[in-house]
Amino acid sequence: MKHVFAILVLMGISAPAFSVAQQIPAHQTTLLSPLPFTNRAQCAIDSEKPTSSIFVMIDGYNAAKVANSVAKLSGLDTAAYSAKAMKEFRLSVAYMTLNIMNKMVRGHLPVLPANLKSANLPKYLQVSRNCEQSKGNACADLQDYLSQLWYNAGNRAAITSIDRFTTANFPLHASKDRLGCYYVKKFSALQGHLHNAEVTASNLQDIALAYMNEADYITGCFDADDTLSNRFVTLQLDWATNPQSLEIQGFDFWNSLKIYMSWAWRNTNELEVMSPTFGKLFRSIALEEAVLYTPNGCRSMTPPSCDNQYLSINSLRELAKATGGNNSEFFDTVPAGTEAEMLEKGVRGVNNDFLGTQSFDKAEEWLSNFRKNLIQSRGIMKNKYQSAMTNMNLLQDQLGIQGLTASVSADIKNHGSTEQMMNELYYMCTEIRLAGDETLDFLKSDIERVAQLKNMTQMPYSEKRSLSEHVNYFKEVSARVLPVCNELEKTNFWNKTGYTVNKLGFAPWAKDMLQINAAGTEEQGTKFTPTAFNGTPLLSWKTHAGSSSASQVICYNSIDCTRLMIKSMVDLYAVSTYADALIPLAGKSSDPNLFNPYSELKTCKMYDPWYQTQRMNKVFMTDLANTALFGWNILPIYIDVDFKAPRVASFKQLVQDGTIKFDPRFEKSKIQTSIVADFGPLVGAPCALSLNNNGLRTFNFYAFSGITLNYCDGKQQTEVISNNPSDFATGKDNARSFCGGCTMNFMAVAGASTASLSVFNPAKFVVYMVRTFQKYFHAKKDKVNIPKSWNVNAAYAAEVYKKYGQIPSHCVDQLGKGLKCFSDTCAAKAASVFEETFNTKVHSVYIREDDRHPSHISANTQREAWIKSDLCKGESIVRFTCNERKVENTKVHSIRGFHKSCRNVIGDRR
Description:
Layout: E1 4-5, E2 26-27, E3 35-38, H1 40-46, E4 53-59, H2 61-74, H3 78-105, H4 122-133, H5 140-151, H6 156-162, E5 178-184, H7 201-212, E6 218-220, E7 232-240, H8 243-267, H9 271-274, H10 279-282, H11 287-290, E8 291-295, H12 308-314, H13 316-320, H14 338-345, H15 363-398, H16 400-415, H17 419-436, H18 444-449, H19 454-457, H20 467-490, H21 508-514, E9 539-540, E10 553-555, H22 558-582, H23 598-603, H24 611-630, E11 637-644, E12 647-656, E13 659-667, E14 670-678, H25 680-683, E15 687-692, E16 707-724, E17 727-744, H26 746-753, H27 762-780, E18 789-792, H28 794-804, H29 809-816, H30 825-838, E19 842-848, E20 863-869, E21 875-881, E22 891-897, H31 900-906, E23 908-909
Antiparallel strand pairs: 1-2, 3-18, 4-7, 4-8, 5-6, 5-7, 9-10, 11-14, 12-13, 14-15, 15-17, 16-17, 19-20, 20-21, 21-22, 22-23
Helix pairs in contact: 2-3, 3-8, 4-5, 5-8, 7-28, 12-22, 15-16, 15-22, 16-20, 16-22, 17-20, 17-22, 20-22, 24-27
């Protein structure tokens, strides 16, 4: 077995100071976290639990760019110097990340709470909120706070004097924590839980083969091999810790890592440990734009929340897809909104490699595609923001409210009779109604809300005016221009013979909202250009010669300037929708849950992972009642009942703590009932009729399949409810349907053969009872919506494959439960307990049943496992109780040595 370089951190062992030349501790891939396979329902449940494995995605471009500039000034080889910088940047990110995790694991640095509302640290709460509410010097207090914690690391008394830290902020782990760090060369079966939603012999074999050929897929994150790519790097970090500690403090741990990482990157000398040459230069790099974290699987780094910030960050998932460059979500001139995008996409697949990681030969190629899409989208957003802010400042500096609105009135008075003027006024009035009319409110509320969002107020750019000032300017101008438009309409200004508006002149964002292009009504012709009514543009950039040209025009006339103001505010709204994802704030890197779309679907209540289980139980109880009511007599009628899940129809929006919170509005759950007449028992004909008021439903009355001829007819009407122009929801469905059919199958034939006029019909009762249980057990086999999970240890799968040359069927269940393969699951569990207790390897397990008949053995029956291991020469005995279906509830009563050598080592443990 080849070895993989990684860091192994044990509690109580101080972190060494690494350098590139030093030997990094080596270990095999047994440190890889077990692979957590889940189906859709379990993946949704797991999204609310903290992860123990993450990917760190690194782009070394900015490191190379800095090095390239230095090399040019110093006369060095730019290519070689840039390559060296990217390698050391990758090593520095790995070292810094692991060093901080190590400090927290050992209790040298306190874990900071992710939820400020429940934080019992008054000083931290104050400096954090001050930093959130403003930018610049207001964050200096937070920097000082983190500085005190960092430089007092390991001094518990000094740290507790800084704030109200308790032992809860310094977790004492019940087991020794281990950290593994890997460079991912290619996504493979070692990340098989991202590609498969269940465990089978086939994917277990893939895992085994990948583990046995691990050098093709992973290496240590400190591997300095020059053949490794350092531009686009994916690191996998595995944290083996106590499960209880992880559940309690996992989210706080990852939140603290991101905070400490961003601060230490800029304010300590840690970077010079791995990069003496570039360490100081790396501090100038915006870490948050170069590094992205994501959970390795369905679990999360940040608690899911149904708000714009969380949904926006997770929308990066679209850019991470192999076809992410074709996604227009981030390029929309007027975004539908993150919640609307989620509603449109709805329920979808998961753990099926929907990001396309395996469609690339190397992990770097997948990350390169992702980063290309991300950088392109980020560039568009930055340009929109900076252009909009520049335009708004110019309009206020040069024209102001009075100057702009007075110019509009003057231009209408002086040039209002021309067709060009009519077109321009039509565009302006339409666009200002879409963006600024309070009555219609298509965009007005969204635009005004921009100034309340912290992702905009904390934008990392120095601005002349605040967003509130820009919003107020927009509101004041709109309030004065809208009455002018109303007056023009009252006087039938555009109702002139032969006049038709030239739709080419609408702004692109207005065309999208009005669906001009989509409707195919855009006219052919040259590009529309506004008129400079006074001979020169109203606003333009001056050239050295003091003249202006078309390429330097800001706006041609007052109407064009008003439209520029409207466009700028629409652009700011578009930026605010995805700013959390595309323009990360200094102080914390993003951590989208790329591999689990159900993190937002569940938290926004669009998907209930327990609904199918509850529905299955409800239908089962209803069918039992049906059997009791109709199964014993000759009546050919029974009631078929099903349940329709509640559906999110729309979301209410509320700005809270600088973020838009989404409150789902439901279409309530429905009980679907059908009256079914089964004529088999009555007339001996294998036919049935169904009448219901719930729309067309599958005609499936019988428990067993056969030759079926069905007919259905139905009508359905759906209400549409509108509370305002931008809020539509579907109301209740009014439907009715009639179904009929004839089926040659067991139930109908049985009913026909026993047809009689007697009061009691035992055959019918039996068939109804069989049907009830058959439906129930069939529902339990749902592989998608009934929560199911597996944990696979790659090393165990490889061990089985080496032994048998394949994965035997009896090993699949055991390996899926994170166990080795023995005679049965309970034997495997006994072996696992023995290995964990004595840190040894078990070779064989024999379960002695005390000659009892299997029917006398229950989950509470004590059993004996006779074990041979490397611990001693002979056998050891483990007495335990075990249920193969719930092996996690296994209870060990005693462990003792049978052979003398084993007794000497073990004694008698109870």
